């Protein structure tokens, strides 16, 4: 007979008196009337000591497996029910998946199937199953559905346990011992070699549901595992490790004081899972030593990867988020993430560690894992909800790009949670960091995902400036091919050629000169690239040769475009809008004030009351049909790429109501397009016949937002008295007074968009910050695919040309042109013939078209 200590009942021991199978376990009916299988006797009445001079064989004959404690109830533990929020702590294992119970407990007394499992408070349903021996003593999970083994000492009694949790008797005494042990049921100690494997399919999600079907395979073969000595040195009882990687799909587990389970199967197969399994198996033995710990000891234990010691501290209630001033306010999760210790990170987070804890330098555990290139830890921390944004505005992607951790970069991009163009406190984007540190593979990955190479940092440097500063011509060429302007100047007036010449990078200088870089442009100090280069270097020679070649062809007849302004928007738009002129000597337009939002010069009484806004309560990206803002627009007309849907009516566009400041959705939802501003790269240029025009500097897919028509809001009466009405845009309010947008004195890039009889953009009325139907915003969207270099234009309408055709005609040059001088002359000739011979003309029409 062998006794087993049960901490809540320390002064008592259990003994087993085996006479008949009925005495081993009881049926459910017997349990209900209080039948007792186990007799509680005082510890002092038992003679459990072994002879000092006995041999190992004699000792083994005296060994007997400990009985389960399924039918034992421990007293209440103060605060235990409160820590579990009065919720049942039972966990069911269904084919390797863990499902927790959410029922409310009635009794506060604790139960457990064996001493290796932590005490639990259970609901009435799981208390009943515990008494019926339906909880596995090895792992502590309930066997109510899925596949498990059954020991049947009686036709009315079933003991359930997992294949990996059978008890082994007679194993070797040391880690190097050999031999074969016997397999026994962990509930009653019966021979488990004849146990049957049972598969039960759950009838309903409830844990207390009735079983509707059961597939049983009797006589399931159980292979005896090699003998493994326990950490304590006595091979009396051990867990059989099966499954991939030497770890069972269920395996040993326990429940932390906060009610969260710790299970090795939560980690991928390998050394980390094995380390966690070992920590779980040995924790009960180590806890009996009653070691005392201080919160300060958790950090060095986590840093050294001592999962067993960390688990002991957590089971003793040590705060997993403790931050010590001696460690610069770093917590144990910082240390584990820095070392890439996945099993320690798992233990700490399951115990309730703050996943976004910050040290004195504001570094988080996720940042530590990223900086040290621990991909598995990065993946796990993101899955547990770690914030990827740093306090200074940077993200994990910034640090991964800076260090060239391509695998981490791809992982972060695949989550969809990181903004690839996010700017930190210095204005640097991930691709700028990668360019400065010459990580070309990272740059290729970022460019393939659509990284913007035209964004500027706080000193107005673009990505090409940093590529030039790093001296990598290969990276600079990639960035140039991605559309970064070679003529970009920073806050000091330096172009990329200035920087390459100053640093003496001949490859970069050669590349820039081959792309047409201006060697005579001066920075704010009055220096040209040639004056910055040292006279004894190849850079100076290359610049001199290029200068002489340019002077030799300076008098050629063909005029080339010159950049007369790097950004007409003066930084008010998301992307710079350069101005070029290759036609005449006209300078950049300056007879207006550039604004990015509509303005008012007189009171308009626009209803901007936030309580009057109809708004949605979406928690997703507003892609469902339940979004109220989408319903106001008939439906949400934007797709996942923020473009108009193909079925959008381009002839008579409907009103679009975007999500507003009163909505509950995220700012990045799919129904916020116009309010995000200009995203495509445009250029103001001098045309041959129509003055200034706007063209695309990139391919623009159909349905993309181009820009908004911005200007001064005025009434229709005010518009009638204005002398220059060339920039008026009617807002077409059918239910009341009509208002207009006049871009003559205040406007944005849209004021330069010309008329095209075959337009490639269309105006759409959009509401964002308010829903006053008298004042819609006018947004332009591409009506078809627009290619790089094509001019943008929309149809001004027949009303415009009815008046303006008296002063000038359309010069769009389209085959469909209706307002050119030729088209107007043909229309007048047709009308004249119709007035002279209306009948003859009608007959000719009918003959041409018999239908």
TrEMBL record:
Pfam families: Ank_2 (PF12796), EHMT1-2_CRR (PF21533), Pre-SET (PF05033), SET (PF00856). This is Histone-lysine N-methyltransferase EHMT2-like. Residues 614-677 form the Pre-SET domain. Gene3D superfamilies: Ankyrin repeat-containing domain, SET domain. ANK repeats lie at residues 328-360, 361-393, 392-425, 426-458, 492-524. Its main location: nucleus. InterPro entries: Ankyrin_rpt, Ankyrin_rpt-contain_sf, EHMT1/EHMT2, EHMT_CRR, Pre-SET_dom, SET_dom, SET_dom_sf, SET_EHMT2. SUPFAM superfamilies: Ankyrin repeat, SET domain. Keywords: ANK repeat, Chromatin regulator, Chromosome, Methyltransferase, S-adenosyl-L-methionine, Transferase. It is found in: Chromosome. Residues 680-797 form the SET domain. It comes from Sinocyclocheilus rhinocerous. GO terms for biological process: methylation; negative regulation of transcription by RNA polymerase II. The keyword Transferase applies. GO terms for molecular function: histone H3K9 methyltransferase activity; p53 binding; zinc ion binding. The keyword Methyltransferase applies.
